[in-house]
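Regression check, histidyl-adenosine monophosphate case 402:
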Amino acid sequence: MSFQPPKGTDDIIAPESQTWRETLRLWEDWSERYGYALISLPIFESTDLFERGVGETTEVVTKQMYTFADRGDRSVTLRPEGTAGAVRAYLNSGKQGVWKAAYSGPFFRYERPQAGRRRQFWQVGVEYLDTASPVADVEVIELGYRFITATGLSDVALLLNSIGDQVCRPAYVESLRRYLREREAQLSAEAVALIERNPLRVLDSKADADKLLDAPRTLDHLCADCADHLEAVKRGLETLGIPYKEDPALVRGLDYYTRTAFEYVATGLDTAQNAVGGGGRYDGLAEAIGGRPTPGVGFALGVDRIMLALGDPVRPHLDAYLVSETGPEEALRVASLLREAGIRVDFDVDGRSVKAQFRTARRLAAPVIVVWRGEGRLVDVQTESERAELPLEEVSSWFSRE
Ligand code: HAM
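Current build output:
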């Protein structure tokens, strides 16, 4: 076959796809527990939305967007992130008051592909709109943390910072600009081009990072309201017992952030892609895209990166494989009864030999084989030892006991 998946994209198939499926199920459960309703938004949006929402000088917008003219000559972009679209959807809905939305789906960035850095990747995330309360920030951060922990990832650090707001940010940006101008000669041409337009973005530059270690930090320039907000977030996390580390260098790569910024870092992954998720507050985003003032906070987690950090899959997608000694039609009837009882079971439809059916069961990594010849004989697939001989009506209760 001469076709390969496009560079930076993946086919997700079994057995890895089972961990993926369970992670997304877990996400449905956790996001629902915290009161987030599901949203499903367009995968492409008007290019302007991202230019104005995410920021024209961000790397995401300048280098990573899949932008094209459609047949009606409109410029559209495959969504590189979900926040701008979610805020647009809220504003378009005409709804008022707090709005809690959860999403799960593919996103697209033209990146240099490597493990954990894909051109098509999957995010799950939430947005909590029309509240400026720091308690919302804490709730959002808590959900991300609890969900990541529930997936089984243990080595995760939560990094926290505040990047100020429209009151204190201008003075900070000016002091950063002065600092960068003094070092212009040592900086990359790309960084120099950003000094006047958007100096905060220079701090994201990987090429320049080691020259900027003593750059002014937002934390030293916060106004009283931003400082109080940060204190309230920290207090809330402490009350909930969520460990965090303040990281004054954390600025995030998107322009819409104000005040709270955070990242979840999987300490076991390479530093280039060890952020399994990130988020923050974005009180000015709704206005930047032409809407009424609507404060908000949220995060997105990278499912591809969570998979990478979790390592080898542990659970098969089947509870049992049904090996029939009495042919596929009888197997169909028995499988149907077992499935009705909630057992994940599969069987051979082609009338293969018992030996061949055993081989398939092993290939599919089913932990148990139900051998059927008028009644069920349960066989451990690893040891091939018999575990029980039961009438059909007791087979399903055997599974629920195990
Ligand atoms: P982000 O930090 O750009 O934030 O992305 C969030 C997460 O998506 C990252 O931490 C990473 O795990 C994953 N991710 C991003 N790019 C890639 C990629 N190329 N390949 C694999 N995984 C990737 C946002 O997107 C914001 N919209 C988050 C947010 C929601 N802020 C407020 N609300």
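Comparison notes: The chain is about 35% helix and 20% strand. Residues 81-83, 109, 111, 116-118, 121, 123, 125, 127, 253, 275-280, 282, 298-300, 302, 304-305 surround histidyl-adenosine monophosphate (CB under 6 Å). No diff flagged against the previous build.
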